Amino acid sequence: MAPKMLKSKVLMFSAEDYDDWKIRMQAHLSAMNDKMWLIIDDRPIVIQKTNTSNDQTTETKQVIPKPRKEWT
Fold this sequence. Notes:
This protein is an alpha+beta fold. It has two helices and two strands; from the N terminus they run ααββ. Strands 1-2 form a two-stranded antiparallel ribbon. The radius of gyration is 20 Å and the shape is elongated.
């Protein structure tokens, strides 16, 4: 016997039911990844890299945003 698949209701935003929507959205995102809601609640993650330009000394390394084309 095949397992039953649960169909989830689409989480459409509604200003009238905001409290219910927020709780359901938190649960939905947490089901994908435990820290997903924290990213949304705090702020987006900025992917960074160490600046490797020649004017930097080894003691004063600077961190800069990593361009999207360099993301792996």
